Amino acid sequence: MKPNIVVVGSSNTDLVVKLPRLPGKGETVIGGTFSLAAGGKGANQAVAASRAGGSVAFVSKVGDDHFGRQALDAFKNDALDTRFVGVHTTTASGIALIFVDGHGENCIGVASGANSEFLPADVEKARELIISADVLLLQLEIPLSTVEATIRIASDAGVPVLLNPAPAFPLEPSLLRHVSIITPNESEVEILTGMRISDDATIVAASLILRNMGIPAVVITLGARGAYLSEESGDQFVAPFTVDPVDTTAAGDVFSGALAVSIGEGTALRDAVRFASAAAALSVTKLGAQPSAPQRAEIETLLNGTNSRSASYAG
Ligand code: ADP
User: Fold this and answer.
1) Cα gap 176→95, rounded to integer Å
2) What is the DSSP letter of 309?
3) What dihedral angle (degrees, nearest 10) is formed by the CA atoms of 245, 248, 250, 256?
4) Ligand 1 contact via 275 beta carbon (within 6 Å)
5) Pocket mutation for ligand 1, best pick of 45, 219, 221, 222 (most atoms within 8 Å of C-beta)
6) pLDDT tens across 123-170, in order?
7) What is residue 248's predicted lDDT score, i.e. its pLDDT?
8) 167 C-beta closer than 6 A to ligand 1
9) Does residue 78 carry a catalytic annotation?
10) Which of 137, 185, 286 to mutate to test the pocket of ligand 1 (most atoms within 8 A of CB)?
11) Are the CB atoms for 203 and 222 separated by under 8 Å?
C-alpha cells in the first residue's frame, strides 16, 4: 500500500530567461533564450513524493488563469489528488521571473499571487484529508498563519509533521515543538538557530538547539556532503551518493518529498534519509526542478547499487 502523503504549500510557474549577462538597472540585454517550468516548493515536493512512491494529495492555491490551469494539468499528470487546490478568481497564479547568466548566476523576482491568498480557512476545508494522512509535509512559501493552522490540525490528530523550513525565517518554539521532523539546509539552520555553520561541531550544536526546541528529529541537508541526522536514538552523518552534478535546483525539495514517502512507509529514519539522499542525488544529475525528480524505480536501482544516471554511494 502506498503511504498517504499530504503536501500543503506553494505553486509557482518559473519564467526563465538565459542571458549572456544579467541586465543592470534600466538596461535591456538581448540574445536570451526563454523556458517555462512548473515550480514552487510545495508543488516540487508533492511531485517528488508522488514519483518516489507516495499516494499524494496537494493542498494549495492557484489563480484562474493560464498558469494556474497549466499547473493543475501537470499535477494531474503526476497523479496528485488536486481536490484541495483552490482557484482564486481575482488574484494571478504565483510566478517567478528568473534571469540566469552564462555562469549560472541569477536574479529572481517572485510575485506570490494566489499563494499569498492561501489562508487558514483553505486548509480547514482539507481537515479530513490532513488528519487521515500518514505524513504531512509542508514548507514556508505560504502565509505563516496557514502553516500554523495546518500544523495544529495534523499535530492534534497525531499525524507526523515534516517541515522543510524554506524559505527560512526565525520560527517560534511554540510552533516548532509540534514539528516531528525538520529538514533545513545549512543556511536555513543558521536562520532558525542563530548558529553559524562552519564545521562538523557547529552542525552538531545547531541540531541540538532544534532538538531542544522540542523537535524529535532533525535532518540537516549538506549539499554534496550529504546530510546530518539527529534523533533520540543517536546522531550521525549520512554519506551522499556520488554524482556528476548538472543542476542542484530543487535538490532539497526532492529530498523532503522522498523522505516523507519513506517515513510514511514506516522505514527507520536512518534508512529513510538514505532513500531521500538517493532521490536527491539523482535529481542533481538532471536540469530543472520538477523534471529532475526521479521515479521510484530509479531510486531503488541506485539504493541497490546499480543505476543509469552514473551515481554511486560514498558511504
Ligand atoms: P537545498 O537544495 O535545499 O539547498 P541541499 O543543497 O542541502 O539542499 O541538498 C539536499 C540534498 O541533496 C543533500 O542532502 C544531498 O543528499 C543531495 N545533494 C545535493 N547536492 C548533491 C551533490 N552534488 N551530490 C550528491 N548529492 C547531492
Assistant:
1) 29
2) S
3) 60
4) no
5) 221
6) 999 999 999 999 999 999 999 999 999 999 999 999 999 999 999 999
7) 84
8) no
9) no
10) 185
11) yes
The catalytic position among 200, 247, 253, 271 is 253
State the Cα–Cα distance between residues 292 and 200, nearest whole angstrom.
Answer: 30
Q: 86 alpha carbon to ligand 1 midpoint, in Å? A: 31
CA-based radius of gyration for the chain = 19
Answer yes or no: is the C-beta of 279 below 6 A from any ligand 1 atom: no
Cell reading at 100: 540566469
pTM: predicted TM-score of the whole model, two decimal places: 0.94
With a CB cutoff of 8 Å and minimum separation 6, the contacts of 53 are: 2, 3, 261, 265, 296
Say how far apart CA 130 and CA 124 lie, in whole Å: 9
Q: Is 146 left (phi over 0), alpha (psi -120 to 50) or beta?
A: alpha
**How far is CA 281 from its chain centroid?**
14
Q: What is the pLDDT of residue 283?
A: 94
**Percent of the chain clearing pLDDT 70 (strictly above):** 97
Q: Which of 16-25, 51-60, 135-144, 201-210 has the lowest mean pLDDT?
A: 16-25
Per the prediction, the chain carries an average pLDDT of 94
